[in-house]
Design a protein that fits this description.
The protein has 372 residues and is of the alpha+beta class. It is built from 15 helices and 14 strands. A hairpin with a 5-residue loop joins strand 2 (75-79) and strand 3 (85-89). The two termini are 36 Å apart.
């Protein structure tokens, strides 16, 4: 619990602070690469979300600008935070990946029964040789590795390679308007760079607070997929300021970080599934009202989300045909006429930039059945 004399930040104050740092209160002219770095990566479990994340944050965003950075290998797709795929700058790919290795080790432990008798160091060495000879799919890794350990579970062997090595998804996978299967090689090989020391926990906490703060220790651990970060925050305490949330939880922040007036206007924004602003905290009520908890997905399926006045207000889906693109918005509650109009205009802007279809439409309807 926070000290009783620490200032209290309301949920709305936390919302506006996080929206400002996530570049969602106003679009910015920040270059694409700088935005990817500032946000400490873009959640990229699917291939298109990073592009939509940047559309909602950057002025005059051109999807080809991110694709060009991927082709030039200045940004890459790699498993890092929370053991999920992120689009990172080359520097972050090389340094964040070793920082979160403990999480990959925990993931590997789930497959131990299928790896009985397997020398994991030898497996990592063999897998490195294979993927650096040429990019390989997970199926190809399974087929190559099972020759050496025929008694093992083939899937576990490939997962072990993915957990032990910093594997990136090579292009054309992830390029805008193109497709490609997941083929993997090491970050060092793809980027033409030797391995780097892991990013320091202290520096990573400071970057996290700059992009997601004010935040608790548990918030940061949830975002990174790491544990035992309390001692890092305590070590940094003299350099930070502290607050409490409305439940008394201690929050840390950078002294000079922006904390806008809670009444600062927040425009409607369309976010893709798995946007990190929805996943970057243990307590997500700063963006997701308690009444809508769990409403941005059903089971393993997540949906695009619409923020209005800074908070989750609706879901959205884009359906594209050769000649028409349609955005369907499913409101989670009653929409004021002005809010509906603002959401409609933002949807039109999204379609204009992000869809090649010559015609488009915006509809309000239902496409998710929550079973209530």
């Amino acid at each position: 619990m926070a000290a009783k004399n620490a200032p209290v930040l309301s949920t709305r104050a936390l919302n506006r602070a996080t929206m400002e740092r996530q570049l969602l209160l106003r679009r910015t002219a920040l270059p694409v690469r700088d935005a990817v770095s500032r946000l400490v990566g873009l959640q990229a479990q699917n291939t298109r979300p990073p592009y939509f994340q940047l559309f909602s944050r950057l002025e005059n965003f051109d999807p080809d600008a991110l694709a060009a950075l991927m082709e030039s290998r200045e940004v890459v797709r790699i498993v890092t935070l929370r053991s999920t795929i992120h689009t990172h700058t080359a520097e972050d790919a090389l340094t964040l990946r070793p920082l979160v290795q403990p999480a990959r080790d925990r993931e590997l432990n789930m497959f131990r029964s299928g790896l009985a008798g397997v020398d994991l160091d030898r497996l990592a060495s063999l897998a490195r040789d294979l993927v650096e000879e040429r990019p390989r799919t997970m199926r190809e890794l399974r087929e190559e590795l099972i020759v050496h350990w025929p008694q093992a579970d083939p899937r576990a062997l490939a997962v072990a390679a993915r957990c032990r090595l910093p594997l990136v998804q090579v292009t054309p996978r992830g390029l805008w308007g193109r497709s490609g299967q997941v083929s993997l090689t090491t970050a060092e090989h793809w980027l033409g760079s030797p391995s780097r020391p892991a990013a320091s926990p202290d520096a990573t906490v400071l970057r996290y607070l700059g992009a997601f703060g004010p935040a608790s220790v548990k918030d940061m651990q949830t975002w990174a997929g790491l544990t035992r970060m309390r001692e890092v925050f305590d070590r940094l305490r003299p350099r930070l300021v502290t607050f409490r949330d409305e439940n008394g939880v201690e929050l840390f922040d950078l002294p000079e970080a922006p904390r806008p007036d809670p009444e600062t206007p927040a425009p409607a924004r369309f976010l893709p599934e798995f946007d990190n602003i929805l996943l970057g905290h243990a307590d997500r009520t700063r963006v997701i009202p308690s009444a809508y908890r769990g409403r941005n997905g059903v089971g393993n399926q997540s949906y695009g989300t619409v923020l209005a006045d800074g908070f989750l207000t609706a879901l959205w889906r884009l359906d594209e045909a050769e000649d028409t693109a349609v955005v369907t918005v499913q409101a989670l509650g009653e929409l004021a006429p002005a809010t509906r109009e603002e959401i409609t205009q933002e949807a039109v802007d999204l379609l204009t930039v992000m869809s090649p279809a010559p015609a488009y439409d915006v509809r309000f309807g239902t496409f998710v059945d929550f079973g209530d």
